[in-house]
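step 3/5: co-fold with calcium ion
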Amino acid sequence: MKRFRYLSFIVILLIGIVGSACSSKESPTVSKLKKQTIKNSSAHCVTLYENPNFTGKTMKFCQDTVYIGDEMNDLTSAAKADCGVKKFTLFEHRDYEGKSITLSGCSQVIFTDDDPFNELISSVKIQR
Ligand SMILES: [Ca+2]
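step 4/5: write tokens
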């Protein structure tokens, strides 16, 4: 049942994206690019990884999260955003406080040992 609800949500999301893409007046080249993006944009989550090579503990976040939880707190060394994500912001403290870094969707980031954001993240905001 939970799975079905998740699937219907994705279908509704896709209908919204396709609908807005069709109503825009853009050159054929842009439309073509947009369609390719839509194809890969079924997911809209951000995954945080314990290790900079995308291994170790992983947790997936699909909406704004005021606190990522004790298990993942201050542990993140890499992150990947699905193509359904427009932008996402990682915050030093819970409740979206402290220093932050905003990255674009459909991308990944690695925090090396000397990076000020390494093993620091405590909350996440996701913009679709
Ligand atoms: Ca923190």
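step 5/5: annotate
Helices lie at 2-23, 28-39.
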